[in-house]
Amino acid sequence: MNGRVFVIGLGLIGGSLALCIKKEHQDAVVVGFDINSEQARLAKMLGVIDEIAGNISDGAIDADLIIIAAPVNETKEIIQLLAELPLNPKVIVTDTGSTKSKIVESAASLLQKGITFIGGHPMAGSHKSGVSAAKEILFENAFYLLTPGNLIEEYKVELLKEWLIGTNAKFLTVTPENHDYLTGVVSHFPHIIAASIVRQTEKIAEAESLIPRLAAGGFRDITRIASSSPEMWKDILLHNRDTLIELLDQWQDEMNGIKTLLEKEKSDAILDYFKQAKKFRDGLPQKEKGAIPAFYDLFVDIPDYPGVISEITGYLAKENISITNIRILETREDIIGVLVISFQTEEDRQKAERCIGIYTSFATSVGT
Ligand SMILES: NC(=O)c1ccc[n+]([C@@H]2O[C@H](COP(=O)([O-])OP(=O)(O)OC[C@H]3O[C@@H](n4cnc5c(N)ncnc54)[C@H](O)[C@@H]3O)[C@@H](O)[C@H]2O)c1
Ligand SMILES: O=C(O)C(=O)C[C@]1(C(=O)O)C=C[C@@H](O)C=C1
């Protein structure tokens, strides 16, 4: 397809969608705007967008597709701003926000002016933010939820899907209310739990200094998402307040139930509790993005000598293994640090683990 695509908010999601569109629709021009001009500059430099717009109005007026990929509150404000502009009557406006009811409600101002708004939410992401984390394969096999209202003609929805075909995502249409309930259960609520486990652990760690050093595999797995953007999640929670309050009540019942089993030492019932959880968890679809992490990290214990990092990256380059990110954690006393190398795929992570095993004696482990 050709035409002008305007992406507002050039972070993880806006950047990844821009890459998908550029890959699939090479005749299209992708214009971007970010309130943080550094992000916009970086997006241009990384080839994520073709042009930077000076402001929202400049980018929006002649766009054929507008994608708002900003935090959910800002998304509402941007929609109000767009509703004041003389947009191309054929433009499709969509967003990527993690909540839908309030956003779709605010888009009534666009619909009143005859402008098509189709709420969107690609159900894949990461705890990482910013355009430098953007990648073309982020949405592969993920569900992409769409919330077109009844007034939206079907061909417009098909047109939007065609623009987004490079995501290789699976589109699903839901109502905004149903969207917020479903994502409340599988995404927003788990986020609260992850953050609460971290908060509780932090308090206990004040008296128990060994805790941070012992918080390894299981703790890291269940709390990875607590490292996501606090600002973004604050707004998601407030947008989906009622659902989350209901789920918190249910969770308290759930916790009281397991507490009672423990108090009464109901061994069989505790076993059943875990068996049932394992059965449901093991039965979750494996190939769908929702069930697997979006980034594949390999942890390498590295000793203290100059050039050790370039030595490792050199071995990976020799074996043609691409890395997407590299950083050092200094969490253990007995070694200089832990190198965390991120890969695009599980296959690359496994190849890297084998490669490091062949060329070095450094211990590696998989975690998040
Ligand atoms: N991170 C995820 O896992 C994920 C997944 C799916 C959907 N989402 C949703 O997608 C949206 C973007 O999330 P993200 O992870 O890309 O966040 P991000 O922080 O990586 O990027 C958001 C970008 O929006 C910019 N921005 C903020 N206000 C703006 C404004 N008024 N005008 C223009 N730009 C503005 C920020 O500067 C930032 O660069 C959010 O609504 C989020 O709820 C996130
Ligand atoms: O993988 C993660 O880090 C995510 O939290 C991604 C996740 C999710 O909860 O699944 C987070 C918010 C988005 O709205 C969609 C996807």
Keywords:
Prephenate dehydrogenase; 16% strand; binds nicotinamide-adenine-dinucleotide; VC0802-like; binds prephenic acid; alpha/beta; four-stranded antiparallel beta sheet; 368 residues; Rossmann fold; 6-phosphogluconate dehydrogenase C-terminal fold; 48% helix
Task: Describe this protein's structure.
By secondary structure, this protein is of the alpha/beta class. It folds into 3 domains: 4-174, 3-Layer(aba) Sandwich (Rossmann fold), CATH 3.40.50.720; 179-289, 6-phosphogluconate dehydrogenase C-terminal like domain (6-phosphogluconate dehydrogenase C-terminal fold); 295-366, VC0802-like (2-Layer Sandwich), CATH 3.30.2130. Helix content is 48%, strand content 16%. It has helices at residues 12-24, 37-45, 56-60, 72-83, 101-106, 108-112, 154-163, 176-205, 211-214, 217-223, 230-239, 241-263, 267-282, 308-318, 346-359, and strands at residues 4-8, 29-33, 51-52, 65-68, 92-95, 116-122, 143-148, 170-173, 296-302, 325-329, 337-343, 364-366. The strands form 2 sheets. An 8-stranded mixed sheet has the order 3-2-1-4-5-6-7-8, with helices on both faces. The protein has a 4-stranded antiparallel sheet with strand order 10-11-9-12, with helices on one face. Helix 8 (176-205) crosses helix 12. The chain is globular, with a radius of gyration of 23 Å. The structure holds nicotinamide-adenine-dinucleotide (NAD) and prephenic acid. Prephenic acid is lined by residues 98, 123-127, 187, 225, 228, 294. Pathway: Amino-acid biosynthesis; L-tyrosine biosynthesis; (4-hydroxyphenyl)pyruvate from prephenate (NAD(+) route): step 1/1. This is Prephenate dehydrogenase. It is an enzyme of class 1 (oxidoreductase).
